[in-house]
Amino acid sequence: MRELSIGSSRIELVRGDITAQDTDAIVNAANTSLLGGGGVDGAIHRAGGPAILAECEQLGGCATGDAKITTGGRLTAKHVIHTVGPVYRDGRHGEPDLLASAYRRSLEVATANGLTTIAFPSISTGAYRFPIAAAARIATATVARALRAGSGITLVRFVLFSATDLAAYEQALADTAAGLQKEEKKR
Ligand code: AR6
């Protein structure tokens, strides 16, 4: 499944580069320093230019599971929401909750700033080694719940870098859709 409608909002999955997205905000898979790194973080700072780092330096870092916003510099997206996912150890150190919190807080920050469209990379599944299938389930379920609760967000796009990551998110989105349907029937 590549697309799921929830009320007047939509979740979509694409394969691509997070820095090229035309949504109001793109999300950065940052670290607690907010001072840059590799992967998505490196790509965003390279494409967006030094204005983003200059703003990040004023933010005093970001806790794991939280999110903070800057402008988008030279990016097409006008805003970058920097969130910090957990470093995966064994799944028994609060990693699932912290990953869900990173998605939830990113959406809350978007809503608080009046944004309606947002693109996420697959947080924590690169350098932070969160297993992709589990991370994809947490990502799609957390976002679906937030959209169902009503957040003013009309589009959440997951931008996956590889075909195998996209396939994992397709499976997860189908599972999330089935879970939502079951809950609706119980009401
Ligand atoms: N567009 C979309 N997805 C990408 C891109 C891109 N341009 N580049 C990589 N990915 P990671 P994390 C995928 O490591 O695991 C940084 O050093 C990548 O294939 O960027 O949360 C930070 O400073 C993977 O599937 O984020 C932190 O220290 C996913 O994005 C640390 O890495 C996330 O990989 C954060 O690690």
Question: In words, what does this structure look like?
Answer:
The protein has 187 residues and is α/β, with parallel strands linked by helices. It has one domain (3-186): Leucine Aminopeptidase, subunit E, domain 1, CATH 3.40.220. The chain contains five helices and seven strands. A seven-stranded mixed sheet has the order 1-2-7-6-3-5-4, sandwiched between helices. Strand 4 (67-71) and strand 5 (79-83) form a beta hairpin. Helix 3 (95-112) runs parallel beside helix 4 and helix 4 crosses helix 5 (163-186). The protein is globular and about 50 Å long. Residues 17-19, 29-31, 37-41, 43, 85, 121-128, 159, 161, 165 line the site of ligand AR6.
Features of the shown structure:
alpha/beta; 187 residues; Leucine Aminopeptidase, subunit E, domain 1; 5 helices; binds ligand AR6
Describe the structure concisely:
Helices cover 41% and strands 19% of the residues. By secondary structure, the protein is an alpha/beta fold.
